[in-house]
Amino acid sequence: MGWKIGWHFLLFYHKNVIIYNMEKIKNCHFLEGWEKKKILILGLGREGKDNLFFLRKIFPGKIIAVADQNKKVKNKRIKKIKWHLGKEYLKSLKKYDIIIKTPGIRNEIVLPHLKKGALLSSQTEIFFNCYPGKIIGITGTKGKGTVSSLIFQILKRAKKNAFLGGNIEKPVLKYLFSAKKNDLFVYELSSHQLVNLNKSPSIAVFLNLFPAHLDFFKDFNSYKKAKEHICRWQKKEDYIIYNSKDP
To answer: Can you say how many angstroms the Cα of residue 91 is from the centroid of all Cα atoms in its chain?
Structure first.
C-alpha cells in the first residue's frame, strides 16, 4: 500500500513542534526570494497536500493560495489559505508569481492563464533543486515502479541510507527536512513529472519507450521528449542506464 497524506497528517504536523534543519531548506538557491512572492498550489490531491505542508513549514506566516476544480478539498481548519475552487479556478492564476502544479494538469491548460514572468514549477523540480544527496531516477513506459522498488531494496540490503518516492505514490518534499549529502533517493519518474523538469538525476535509468498517455500529450513525439528529460541535463560525471536494443 502506498504512503498517503491526508488532512489529519497536515494538521498534526502544523500543530506540533518538530525539529527540522530549516536553515538547510531556506538556503536552497532555488527557493531564494519565494518568501516575498505570491504562491499558489494548483491541484490539492496527495502531492498538492504535501506541497502545502512543505510551504507551511518553511513559510509559517505566509498566506498560500490553493486552486482546484473540486470544491470539496477546502478545509477551514487549515489557516492562512486563499481558496480558488470550482469551475473558474484557473482564472485565479494570473494573480500569482509562482504556481506549483500537480503533474496531472496539462501545460496547455495552465499557460494561457499565467501572468508574464510567472514561474510554473512542480514538486519534482523543487526536490531536484534542493536535495543534497544523489538521486537515482527511473522512468519507462512500463516497469518503472517495480524497478524503483527493487533498486531501493538492493540499496537498503547493502546498508545504504536510501529512500524511495515519486510516482510510486510517495510524495517527496518531506524528505528534504532530514536529507543528508550521502543519502540516496530512488525517484520513480512519470512523463507527467518529467515534462517540465530542467534538471536530470545523477543516475538515470531508462527502461523502455512506446506510445502511451496520448490523452495527455498531443502526440508520441511530445511524450518521447518529456521522457528524454531524465537525461537531457546530465553532467559528464553522471550515468544513464538503458537498453540499447530497445527501439
So the answer is: 23
Identify any residues that bridge with 41 across adjacent strands, giving them in sequence order: 66, 100
Alpha-carbon dihedral sign for residues 214, 215, 217, 218: positive
pLDDT digits (tens, 9 = 90+) for 131-175: 999 999 999 999 999 999 999 999 999 999 999 999 887 789 999
Strand blocks (E) in 1-122:
39-42, 64-68, 81-85, 98-101, 119-121
The answer to whether residue 11 is domain-embedded is yes
pLDDT digits (tens, 9 = 90+) for 25-36: 767 899 999 999
Question: Are β-strands 39-42 and 98-101 bridged in parallel, bridged antiparallel, or unpaired?
Answer: parallel
Cα dihedral angle (225, 39, 53, 122), rounded to 10 degrees?
A: 0
Report how many domains make up the chain.
Answer: 2
The three grid cell numbers given for residue 130, joined into one nine-digit string: 534542493
Output the CA–CA distances (angstroms, integers) from residue 24 to 21, 99, 213, 218, 241, in the order listed: 6, 23, 37, 40, 31
* Domain interval for residue 96: 7-121
Which residues have C-beta within 8 Å of that of residue 86, sequence separation ≥ 6? 69, 71
Same domain assignment for residues 99 and 204: no
Helix (H) or strand (E) holding 165: strand 162-166
| Inside any domain, residue 135 | yes
Confidence class for position 120, pLDDT limits 50, 70, 90: very high
Q: Whole-model pTM? A: 0.88
Same domain, 137 and 104: no
